[in-house]
Task: inverse folding
DNA sequence: CACATAAGCTAACGTGTGTTAGTTCTTTCA
DNA sequence: TGAAAGAACTAACACACGTTAGCTTATGTG
């Protein structure tokens, strides 16, 4: 079937996506060449096309995988029966968790999605927009119930989402602070504030 | 002297930098071509080289302008005589202010600096690293004085810096919320927390 | 008016890119 | 064992890019 034995659990296609995510994160989508990707995978550039349709497919795949993950989590949290603060906390913890476990993908989907082409670009933008909107609705409900300070909900959501997206410094911090502690720090600062 | 009268206050070189920052922000450094930049400026690509040395110079110029601005502000804040919380608040407000007034430049320096080449890349990285370190030192002093909760200072700085860097949604929010209110929301959420 | 110069233009070069065509090798399965 | 097919290879194409060379035009100063 193939020259090189493939692990039962991971196909070559998956390997290509994984390496691509790493390169896109490190150097950016545009700055990563198919030849470079191929070299890291251990084959020639042309051989990549036995497994994928093209460079854009790689970016699309990564971005929508992440977008779908977060959208599904939002479905789950919305339908849960708990306080608003708890919902916000669950979302923050999920973001941190995803960042720690799949940070290459999350980073790429966050920073490189601009390089997608239509019609995927519009679809992705819409998913992003909806996610933020749903997050803001939760915050607004929290404000109206008196659980949350009277602030602009969109600003709050913007702060949250971006606070967590700092992936370049991420690994450095992860190795100093363990990831549970990181999650807790994040929740504390964002929900309780800096001041003691 | 030139075919087109230049405004006394703005040289053509400045105009090129300004348009470049807009394009780099919108499409990314790599995805912006000199031909496209030239078209937006209203000249041919080759004519750009009468004003600048090359594409890399544009990125270098933008990044170091921003880095110098923040480094100078850090000098100022460090030497001020006030509480730690006030220092942190001053820095946050300055970040928001710079973002509102020069968001193209700030955004580009934050997201596109990877595309710089040596030796500028190393120098820029070092400036960034120093800035974060000095910021973290302030937070740590706040912790030891009991003004700030016992959290990981690096994580806190990471949260702050990234919370403010969400420029893509920035203009949208600015037009709904005025920029003073934005600054206040930011300070409230980050210093006092979300919970009421 | 004439000269120097700034700033524009056209044309082109060299390079790197994504991708395709065509071929060869290896493995699986009937 | 032999056919089918998956997956690798080499070679090349077409294109877009940053940049340079060389020329032309316009303008301010003597």
Result:
């Amino acid at each position: 079937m193939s020259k090189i034995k493939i692990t039962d659990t991971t196909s070559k296609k998956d390997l290509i996506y994984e390496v691509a995510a790493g390169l896109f994160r490190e150097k950016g989508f545009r700055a990563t060449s198919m030849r470079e990707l191929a070299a890291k995978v251990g084959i020639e550039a042309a051989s990549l096309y036995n497994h994928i349709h093209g460079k854009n497919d790689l970016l699309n795949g990564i971005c929508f995988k992440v977008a779908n993950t977060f959208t599904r989590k939002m479905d789950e949290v919305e339908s849960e029966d708990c306080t608003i603060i708890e919902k916000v906390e669950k979302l923050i913890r999920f973001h941190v968790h995803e960042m720690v476990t799949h940070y290459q993908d999350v980073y790429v989907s966050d920073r490189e999605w601009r390089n997608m082409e239509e019609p995927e670009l519009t679809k992705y933008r819409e998913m992003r927009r909806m996610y933020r909107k749903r997050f803001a609705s939760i915050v607004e409900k929290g404000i109206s119930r008196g659980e949350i300070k009277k602030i602009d909900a969109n600003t709050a959501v913007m702060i949250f989402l971006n606070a967590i997206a700092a992936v370049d410094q991420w690994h450095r911090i992860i190795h100093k602070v363990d990831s549970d502690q990181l999650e807790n720090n994040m929740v504390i600062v964002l929900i309780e504030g800096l001041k003691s």
In short: Chain A touches chain B through 48 residues (CB under 8 Å). Chain A is about 70% helix and 0% strand. Residues 123 and 196 of chain A are 43 Å apart (CA to CA).
